[in-house]
Amino acid sequence: MIRVALADDQLLVRAGFRALLAAQPDIEVVGEAADGEQALALVRERRPDVVLMDIRMPVLDGLAATRGITGDPALGEVKVVMLTTFELDEYVFEAIRSGASGFLVKDTEPDELLRAVRAVVGGDALLSPGVTRRLIAEFAARSREPAPAAALAELTEREREVMALVGMGLSNQEIARRLVVSPLTAKTHVSRTMVKLGARDRAQLVVLAYESGLVRPGWLG
């Protein structure tokens, strides 16, 4: 059973998500919060698998609440998916860098939302279609020249290659086809790379790929 917590200051939004999620046989909604402080308290008490977290909330915003969750070792298994009204919300990249497993726009199709919840529990980062590349490319284009990351020295040549492909938005299946290996082998390479770099999940691996200069915006095509 996937345990989900909802954090949004709009009652109707929470009610809509609750109705959708509660109708699934493998998902249970364990609580709701109307602001970031309530969200933190709820997560600490109920320890959900996934938190659907609105970025803009009163008292404590979703970004600060996410940092509170991802910065607490006791909550290391909790995944945060940010919810936003606009695909290129200025806070989304910071949220991912702070440990969120991804983000979705609020008008995402119901099937996509359900797939996102199930995907992040499995360790994947599922963001709104087409958003990942545009978002991170925009950030990288405005950033200073990235400094080589010392941590990359621990990676093998194949792991660097896999990390670059993850940074370009490829799934494990796509990486497997590109490298002519099995999907299981691709997943293993991704997992080992995450462990070596201390990446919380796939979303942070994407960020590290850009911050280290391993992937550049011009490579996105």
From TrEMBL:
SMART domains registered for this protein in UniProt: HTH_LUXR, REC
Alphabetical list of CDD domains matching this protein: LuxR_C_like, REC_NarL-like
One function term, GO molecular function aspect: DNA binding
Residues modified as 4-aspartylphosphate: 54
Keywords on record: DNA-binding, Phosphoprotein, Transcription, Transcription regulation
GO biological process, one term: phosphorelay signal transduction system
Top-level taxon of origin: Bacteria
Sequence ranges assigned to domain HTH luxR-type in this UniProt record: 148-213
Name of a matching Pfam family: Response_reg
Domain Response regulatory: 3-121
Matching PANTHER family: TRANSCRIPTIONAL REGULATORY PROTEIN NARL-RELATED, TWO-COMPONENT RESPONSE REGULATOR
Protein name: DNA-binding response regulator
Species of the source: Streptomyces antioxidans
